[in-house]
Design goal:
Rossmann fold, binds S-adenosylmethionine, about 20% strand, about 250 residues
């Protein structure tokens, strides 16, 4: 895979909105799962660490309208820009802010602490165990004492075909047979060719991190989190973990 492709993979996807258009239903389902794990309470503060283009905002919209305050941060200017644009389009910009930062560097902000910190498919792209541990420790500094960490990362069983299969089934159940046929034959072939295969290759070559359940749990524990729950999401291709400060 060319260097240009790997370097510009996310920013091109975010700016062209191909990332949104090609995201498989199963990925969106994983975001719904994140929202399902949010604590009760109207005025929660949430940090979306490695927010990308703010796709999670689509699923947080109702909670944000009820009072949740969202902050997104990402390495990429294109991601932060798209997230802010999305918030405007959704009409929730007054409760959304975003800033550019590197999760492996100390927090550049004003020391604000959050009720919830989410890392949805963001830390696994960090190249080494040390960098991921550093990022997780930095996330701890963002959290209130009673705060919750919701983390999603790929599993060693990551499988593009299973993700597509589950996505087609979910679309059929939710939106009917026609919508599922359109996704299956006109959209998901590109999802697989442009997106999932590339990610699978990055994972199998070890450039990005895929986890066993034990490794996922151990990494959170090493960073100082008490792991409360782990479950499979994304057609068995990822885990979602819930942690609290130990
Ligand atoms: C797979 S995308 C996920 C984006 C978003 N969380 C979602 O699920 O749609 C991975 C994101 O992690 C971000 N990322 C990777 N390394 C980062 C770092 N060191 N600091 C901040 N963001 C980072 C990338 O820029 C990219 O936007």
């Amino acid at each position: 895979m060319g260097k240009f492709y790997s370097k510009n993979y996310w920013s091109v996807g975010f700016q062209s909105r191909l990332y949104d258009r090609l995201s498989p239903e199963s990925y969106l389902e994983s975001m719904r799962r994140v929202v399902a794990f949010l604590p009760e309470g109207k005025s929660l503060t949430l940090l979306d660490a490695g927010c990308g283009s703010g796709l999670l905002l689509r699923f947080l919209e109702a909670r944000i309208r009820e009072g949740l305050v969202y902050t997104g941060t990402d390495l990429l200017k294109s991601g932060v820009g798209q997230a802010l644009l999305r918030a405007q389009e959704l009409g929730i910009a007054d409760r959304v802010s975003c800033f550019q930062s590197n999760l492996t560097s100390p927090y550049p902000g004003d020391g604000q602490k959050f009720d919830v910190v989410v890392g949805h498919f963001s830390l696994y792209t960090l190249a080494s165990n040390e960098l991921r541990l550093l990022a997780l420790k930095n996330l701890k500094a963002f959290m209130k004492m009673e705060g919750v960490l919701i983390l999603t990362n790929p599993s060693v069983d990551y499988d593009a075909d299973s993700i597509i299969e589950q996505s087609v089934r979910l679309v059929r159940e939710r939106h009917g047979i026609l919508a599922s046929l359109i996704k299956q034959y006109l959209v998901y072939p590109f999802t697989k060719a442009i997106g999932l295969r590339f990610i699978q290759k990055q994972l199998s070559s070890g450039k990005w991190q895929a986890y066993t359940r034990e490794e996922f749990s151990q990494e959170m524990e090493r960073a100082g989190f008490a792991v409360q729950h782990i479950e499979e999401v994304y057609a068995g291709s990822a885990f979602i973990g819930i942690g609290r400060l130990a």
